Amino acid sequence: MKKNCLLTISLLVFIQFFSVSAQNLTKEAHKKTATLEKLMSKASKKGFDVTREETIIWFSKEFLKIAKWDENNVPFIQDAFERFKPLKGDKAEMAKNLPDFERQKVIEILDTGINNLTMVLDGTIVRRPVAKVDWENIVVEKDQFTSNGKPVFLYDYFSKSMGNPTSDKNLYNDHLGNIDHIGGFTPNLLKEDRTFNQNILNKVKNHPDTKAGYLLLWNTSFPKWIQKKDPEVTKGRNTFMGFDIDNPLMHEVWSDVIQKAGEVTKGKKVVQLGYILANEPHWLSEKGNWAFKLGEMNEFSSYTLTKFKKWLAVNYQNNITELNKNWKTSFSSFDTVKFEFPLRKDTKGTPLRYDWDRFNMDRVVEWFAFLQTELHKTNPKGDTHIKLITHFFTDDERSHGIDLEALTELTTMIGNDAKTRERDLRSNKFESWETNYAYNWEELCVSYDFMESVAPNKIHVNSETHFLSSVAWRKLDTSPAYVRNNFWLATLHGMDAGLSWFWARDPDGSPEDRFENNAKSKDNALTKSFAASVNMQPQVANELTQVMMDLNSFSEEIIALRRQRKPIRLFHSETSAINKKQHMTEQFDLYESLFFEGLPVGYATEKIIKKQDNTNWDVILVYKTEYVTDSEFNELQNYLNNGGNIIIDNDASLSMNEYGEKRTKKLLQNNGRLQVLNTDKYEDLKQLALKSIPSNDVVLSESNGLKNKGCSWRVVPNKDGGYLMSIVNLGKNKATLNVSTKNGEKVTCINMLTEQSLGTTFELDVNGVLLLNIKK
Predict the structure, then answer these.
(1) What does the H/E/C string look like for 556-611?
(2) Domain limits, CATH 3.20.20.80, in the chain
(3) Does the chain have fewer CB atoms within 10 Å around its N or its C terminus?
């Protein structure tokens, strides 16, 4: 009894202490809010722009509401933490501490705002006024969105507090972003009698058309009448593509649905960001991987098998003997072809595996070409993109059916949901990138540089950015510098619009209905997404908007840096990627070595060489690319015939066709320049390539205590006779930097975000970002 009394007294003391702590922090936050608002009034009267501070005030007030809700609903918050298993620590303690954590972060962003505005007022720093986005008057140009006559980078959240109208100014505004969207189109729009569900259609027709937005095709569900008509429809399904894309009935259904979508939305602002043709499509076909364990692609339909047999007949020119030789089989005809599916892991590198992986990609391209064609029947100018998983390109796995080049080339906009992260929370193992870098940027930069090389003149939409959190990573105390670094990097590498994952708070501070009432959501991944997300981090939400405001204020400078010519191109072959166990891993070594040399890295493929102006680059590097088709080989030869410049690591590259057969031909120099090195070191190719191109007039030197450089930089001449330079520190250490000129001319560096002089030698912190005006 005595023990229970002591526990009760202790609990009461804790609750009282906790309550006092909460009151003190809230009181301090309100006091600092008043201080900042007073400074804003003073600054406004003096003609200074206070848009950035308006956002700080807005997020501060929102997160104080959020903290109060979380404080009153600790069991719910604890459950959210418990659901996300990779997050380590005492979940009960985390839930208990979260409200005060949120209040403390509110105080921190207010302190930052007070400090910055004080420096503006006393002249220590000079800021360019924020170029606000005019969400209702966005113009879609060839390779950019514009607002008020200038390039603009759009921002918002994907899956934004579902159930609330997109006209709700508490959720759709300059602070959280204001991109519109129409509820996803699905096959449920179509009835069995092939008439349309008028209730769904009327919602779309009556949706206000006031601002830029997007439309998403959801492929996860379909009405029961379809499966009754054809039970095979679910064979070959995956998580976000719940049906067989080779099914003729689904072709008929989607033809009607997407044509209707194009018809009722044609010419509307709400589709200015395009029609998203699919959410994260994939068709992983290997036994034992994560998708297989989820029941994805455990079998395929008779339609897929028939299509594969026809594909084989065409690709083997009806020569079954040739297929039997490659597959080591004895089929009497293409009609009798059969094989074990899902594929075993040890089939990687075999002709059978090459044929399936290539066919799988081709049929997926065919599906999306079909959707786009049907859309353009009713809306010929409708822009399209696909939320493509970019690690399918940068990883070594190739059974997923995603040909990033072909799909990027197909759609009218570039689409993806690229991610960055620190160490995978599911693993305790050291990751190789940690030797030199603050976070893993490979997927983002490699895939973006590749897609921008494939389609340099297309708008680029990341419809679900995973820079703030993902399945594999999130961090409750994410630094604002990390957020700024990521979004600056992504924008510099091509991103024109980013819809971040995700905003799930209602205007009263509570989580949206799908979290409060889990019965409404069958998405297991979604229910695990709330813990440690941006929805608990005022410093993250605020910094995302702050960096986008800065990027938009300097949009013309960013576009100038983005449109630089890419003089060195790395040759990419999906043929080698399909056949080799670690092709993309090997390729990254060369990419990484060039990434920190002050120039944008580009790619060349057979199609790029064939379709684009070859004067857009100076040299193509071929590194550890043993397998290429005859068509790829011939295009490289044509490039040399036309005066091209190629550097190859050694004779092993380009030595085999797609089936591992030795090639008798070798490239001939002819009218171009061909250098075949006797090396397997990527550094040798890098050094020779750098000698093949004009060097920058301005040079950035770095010292960071590491073996490798960590600062990625670009420089272009500006209209004043000086230079514009962007520097992003990806290294895990602070860097000491020095700016000099090739001819020894003296310069000085001005931080364009603050107009402060840095001289020519200065430091850049971990995750630091600089935009410099280099004056002679």
Answers:
(1) HHHHHHHCCCCCEEEECCHHHHHHCCCHHHHHHHHHHHHHCCCCCCEEECHHHHHH
(2) 144-311+349-526
(3) N
DSSP 288-308: TSHHHHTTTTSS--HHHHHHH
Q: Which of 446, 391, 417, 741 is nearest to 588 (CA)?
A: 446
State the Cα angle at 737 between 731 and 739, rounded to 5°: 135
Domain with CATH 3.40.50.880 in the chain: 568-691
Give the sign of the dihedral formed by CA 230, CA 282, CA 347, CA 630.
positive
Torsion angle of C-alpha atoms 607, 612, 616, 617, degrees rounded to 10: 20
CA-CA-CA-CA torsion sign (459, 463, 468, 474): negative
Q: What SS3 class is residue 138?
A: coil
SS3 content of the chain, % helix, strand, coil (to 5): 45, 15, 40
Q: Which amino acid is at 152?
A: V
pLDDT of residue 81: 96
User: How open is the CA angle 282-364-181, to the nearest 5 degrees?
Assistant: 70
Q: Strand 735-741 vs strand 761-764: parallel, antiparallel, or unpaired?
A: antiparallel
Q: Can you give the C-alpha Rg of the chain in angstroms?
A: 28
Q: Would you state the structure tokens that stand for residue 402, as one six-digit string?
A: 């995603």
Q: Which CATH class for the 144-311+349-526 domain?
A: alpha beta
Separation between Cα atoms, residue 403 and residue 574, nearest integer Å: 8
Instruction: Classify 698-775 by CATH class.
Output: mainly beta
Encoded amino acid at 469, one letter: S
Confidence (pTM): 0.96
CATH-assigned architecture of domain 568-691:
3-Layer(aba) Sandwich (3.40)
For 22, residues 6+ apart whose C-beta sits below 8 A from its C-beta are: 67, 71, 99, 100, 103
Burial 564-582 (b: 16+ CB within 10 A, else e): eebbbbbbbbbbbbbbbee
* 3-state class (DSSP) for residue 688: helix
How many angstroms separate the CA atoms of 73 and 93, rounded? 14
